[in-house]
């Protein structure tokens, strides 16, 4: 928010000084226009000046448009094709378009695919919901492994059409979204833009592609909302969302179902449960707690009604990545005709539609999370315990993962203690600490 306002200030500086100068020069101007011939010359001069200004403006305009267009051209297409090319020895590799590739989960999934020899092209708009330098750093990491990340928005239908035309993607891993539950109070439109409009734009592009890719995308455990039946099973009700974020994810499940039904797109929705780990998201509690503890600042710990502790089914990133790859590997092909678009896209038969919980099945309370962090950081937290405000958070989450276990062979293996140990190790090294002290 702050950054955007700053940019606007820089683009439109206030101009009170100019008014003064004009007033001072008023008499001089009058004398110059005294004779008609001088007036004619002045007019000519002004016309020439305006013309040259206008042509300069249009030059600036086209060149800046050219420079800001971060996609297109033969060289760009070559980079996309190279990045999408599988390198598996058994020639069984897949080609995946990963949206949100500069994000936390997207960067991990992209790397894992690349490591096993699949082709990967990333797409991300690098928005400033949290520090974009972390997204740039993830992009650099991907680029050093040969994964190309396109800077663009999932709402850009022309870019999507071009990407799907240049490469016959077998799969789309759709992870781009406006995440976070509380930010929806501040900026509701960003959730509609990315999670609703962006999703529809992506599905439109996929249904028209020939061949149609299979789609695996991130829903969220937040769709269970005020559900009190534990553990949360896929068949439980999901019609009581507690936040706009949850409502947009639930809408996504319905929207993808429509595209599956009409156009034969193969759809797998994954309800992630509080994912954490190295390269994580700075807006999440485990991350901001770590930052504040290291800086000696207090942390705010929410408590539920009747002084009950909040609990989350924290899931380590490597386990989530395994679930994502298994989803891609078990996804059936889409059955739509693709090609031509224009409403001629008929499905040849029903396509696969699946929804899985990807959690850890062992909820941990927030005070326990804090004490594990304190142990790994070897520092005490200054805790500010307050009652949870009713702005979107739910009191607890707990996944039933038996369906994912049966269909995907999904079996989480990292508990919160081990996972936070790895996160803290990454955090200290990424932000230049040597065991609690910052190296400047
Ligand atoms: N991390 C979790 O605990 C968690 C839990 C449940 C669901 N999810 C879902 O998993 C997915 C990945 O989450 P994450 O934790 O990696 O979040 P993230 O914010 O780190 O990653 C999302 C990425 O998408 C990009 N993006 C956002 N809007 C875009 C747009 N319109 N066009 C192009 N790029 C856009 C962002 O720049 C960001 O890099 C999201 O869909 C999220 O809602 C995450
Ligand atoms: C977990 O989900 C499965 C369906 O995938 C269901 O059969 C089972 O009863 C659920 N278990 C519990 C404890 O809710």
UniProtKB/TrEMBL annotation:
Residues 96-333 form the NAD-dependent epimerase/dehydratase domain. Pfam families: Epimerase (PF01370). The chain crosses the membrane at residues 32-56. InterPro entries: Epimerase_deHydtase, NAD(P)-bd_dom_sf. Its EC number is 5.1.3.6. Keywords: Isomerase, Membrane, NAD, Transmembrane, Transmembrane helix. GO terms for molecular function: UDP-glucuronate 4-epimerase activity. It is an enzyme of class 5 (isomerase). It is a multi-pass membrane protein. Coiled coil: none annotated. The keyword NAD applies. It catalyses: UDP-alpha-D-glucuronate = UDP-alpha-D-galacturonate. One of its GO terms (cellular component) is Golgi cisterna membrane. It is found in: Golgi apparatus, Golgi stack membrane. Belongs to the NAD(P)-dependent epimerase/dehydratase family. This is UDP-glucuronate 4-epimerase. The lineage of its organism: Eukaryota, Viridiplantae, Streptophyta, Embryophyta, Tracheophyta.
